[in-house]
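Quick one - inputs below.
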Amino acid sequence: MSENIQRLRATYTKGEAVKYISHLDLARTVERVFRRARLPLVYSQGFSPRPKFAFASALPVGATGRAELLDVWLSPPLAPLEFAKRVAPQLPAGIELVEVREVDLRLPALQASVSHADYLVTLEDAPVDLGARIADLLARDAIPMERQRKGELRAYDLRPLILELDLIPGPGAQIGMKLANSSSATGRADQVLAALGLADAPYAVERTRLYFDLADQ
Amino acid sequence: MKTPAIVSREALDRILPRVTQPARYAGHEWNAITKNWDAMDVRLALLYPDAYEIGMSNLGLMILYDLVNRQPDMVAERAYAPWTDMEAAMREAGIPLFSLETRHALRDFDLLGFSLQYELTYTNVLNLLDLAGIPIRAEQRSADDPLIIGGGSGAYSPEPMADFFDLFVIGEGEVALLQLLRAYQAAKRREGWSLEAKRRFLEQAARLPGVYVPSLYRVTYHDDGRVAQFAASGSAPARIQRQMVTPLPPAPTRLIMPFIDTVHDRAVIELQRGCTNGCRFCQAGMIYRPIRERAVDEVVQTVDEMIAATGYEELGLLSLSSSDYSRIEELLKRLRERYAPEQLAISLPSLRTDAFSVSLAEMIQEGRKSGLTFAPEAGSQRLRDVINKNVTAEDLLNAARTAFERGWQHLKLYFMMGLPTETDEDIDAIADLVRQVLRVGREARGRRVEVNVSVATFVPKPHTPFQWLPLADLEVVADRQQRLRQALRLPGVKLNWHAPEATLLEAALCRGDRRLSRVIERAWRQGARFDAWQEHFDYQTWAGAFEAEGLDPQFYGSRLRASDEVLPWDHIACGVDRAFLWAEYHSALRAETTPDCRGGCQDCGLRACYELADCPPELAGQP
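Output:
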């Protein structure tokens, strides 16, 4: 490969209009956005070459994201502003560029760098004792839960995946969550709600921020 | 005027998290068009009566969507059949069927246009109307309900759906649909809209080219159930002429791009419409005549625009027989050179069975060589002559040898079973042919070759030379499947076939008269929907519906018809003469072939019907 390769890191939103598309579908969508934008993509070798780009973390179907991250490799390089100019007009409703910057080619993969994430959950109707339920949950040593993984139910402990859980003061019923979000352990907002006894309550989930484990960088 | 109902995003947010593939219902796809609803004079919803993944792969609807939305005073939006979980959730929440673009309730559109491509989607049509809150029978609908129109290949034998549709557009919609929409607009402007105005409009529409208004025709029957007479009332024409456009209008380029994976998720362009091979079993080869090729320059320019507008990584060059496009090599060469840096994959379906086609496949597949499909359709030369599939065993073996030598390891072969005059020997000939292909492969590549054999059950289709023939006895078909399975128990051979249980229903529904509307309605009321999906199809529901209505699927599907019988689709004129079809039928029985009409006109009737100076019209290969 030539020396002339650049790695850009884009922060983007996954909004209401596209919140029901899966991570795989988002990847296909983004690839086509890049192709429409005529970016100098770097392709993999082999019989079916794929352009090189990678996401930080999959967002569950139905959740929106305010500051999602992806890396894309280009050759020859493109100024971040030029990248944004080409890409923005090709984005489907709901996906917006927030920031683009060049990053070091040697940085570890985004997916391996993310350690935890903030979520904002808005409930349509909150139970009056929501504050107490949160306090009870946080006071527990372990929260045994089950989830589907590769077709089978697996038991796990949700408690260590919850870093912070707060009832946000104000008129609406909102819960802020800071959950583990690494490749080995990811807390899901819907599971936290289930643990709060709110599995069937209508709610909206937004991921507001991804954090890097600074030790890795 | 009533206030249009819009399904709110909040209402959907309450049900979408609980259904499979919620993105099917969320819209916002790239290139979908949203117009100012209130400013539009004519509002059309286009529906495909099957799941989103199937419907979004239909090019015909995409063409009409593009065409109508080019009109500044008209809008076309889309809807597909909600999957069963979504249907249940919508009914429970009281959410009516809505359009993907603006989420308007479908009953607030002026017209709903259904694409009818396959008989086993018919119950979905009824279900969609019902989900929209629209009475399913045309006679029960009020002036407030939209006009329900049908098109597509199913409209060439529309009688089984006659009770549910206000009108059908027969043939290529590119011209006929707009004429109809303009006439509707004028009628509405002239006199407002009421039941009386609707009645008058339908009478007027029946005089438009290609429009069939079933309520203006009376059908009488003989005591034995055959159609006695088909009588037009008032000024409605006795026969409805299928609409044909030549040259082909520009192809749409701003294709709507699904977020989710669909059956054909790729850029597509029709290289040509129509086919000159004259295969006697093939309805498309009869009803889409004449052949109309696009010029190479036009294809290249359209592909440029399409790739710029979509970013697709794959391009499908569609036609009924790609190898027959006059300048196929030049086209592939140009596209390949142009799109090499962008890594655009090109797919070329429906290749002819010969070595030339292998070299075409090689031009587009390069290193991948994933698989190659040929369709000899029948095992013996005699039977291939009967169906006028002008391919020899030598052609196939040459094609196979070339393919294996050039690096392919998997070949796919398509055959049909239950063809007219078929005997056990013809089945043995399939096995024989497959063994020869395997031998050729072993010679060229050694052990590792694989041959996939797909066998479909033949259904005689309206407007083909076999339209008078019965569906084969399904017990015989089952025996022959067994026979073939025994003969092809070989390493390196995989055999697939479609379960024949739905075949009788398909044969009855495509060849039925309008009394079948009652059967379809009853089957739907008993829960039939998504009949094309094996997990949903229940033949007992249909058998019960036929019985309750005093009708017999065998009468429609499995009966030899006489030359003087009035066929339920005789009033639909697709341009090919009935006399030509009858002559072809008898040539078939004598195993006599009819040559490809690129080499000379075979007098099928088309030329006179459309007053064509040249047929085939000027091809892309000619100056």
